[in-house]
Amino acid sequence: MAFLRSCSNASSGMGVAGDCKETFLELQRKKTHRYVIFKIDEKQKAVVVEKTGGATESYDDFIASLPENDCRYAIYDFDFVTEENCQKSKIFFVAWSPSVSRIRAKMLYATSKDRFRRELDGIHYEIQATDPSELDLDVLRDRAH
């Protein structure tokens, strides 16, 4: 029985460091951050906060924070104005998995994604991206409206 339990734990992916949820809540409720980049720390066997972007940082700053050749999870707080001229905000979860990243990294991020995302309550949209063109600002605009 213990063997089955350890196998199921292994297949559920990485744990989540406590500050991940706290940092997400700072973005969601306090608007302290424009974005948060998360990475899997294999030594800790957990998803950890790698970088936060200040509330005044741009979408280009966010895109520049994603590595060209490695996977990451990210949260982006997208502000926009509706056709009725109302200021709105939607939170996007980005699963960044560039096609040039290592297969092991792609598998690790893919198997851990659902568990990690469940920890972050209040995400409006999810984007799976393998190339920067899939994260064009127009993609977010189209999804948010």
Automatic annotation (TrEMBL):
UniProt cross-references to Pfam families, sorted A to Z: Cofilin_ADF (PF00241)
Residue ranges constituting the ADF-H domain according to the UniProt record: 13-145
Single Gene Ontology MF annotation: actin binding
Keywords for the protein's UniProt record, in alphabetical order: Actin-binding
UniProt keyword annotation of Membrane present: no
SUPFAM superfamilies in the cross-refs: Actin depolymerizing proteins
Secretion signal, residue range per the UniProt entry: none
Biological process annotations from GO: actin filament depolymerization
Designated name of the protein: ADF-H domain-containing protein
UniProt source species: Ananas comosus var. bracteatus
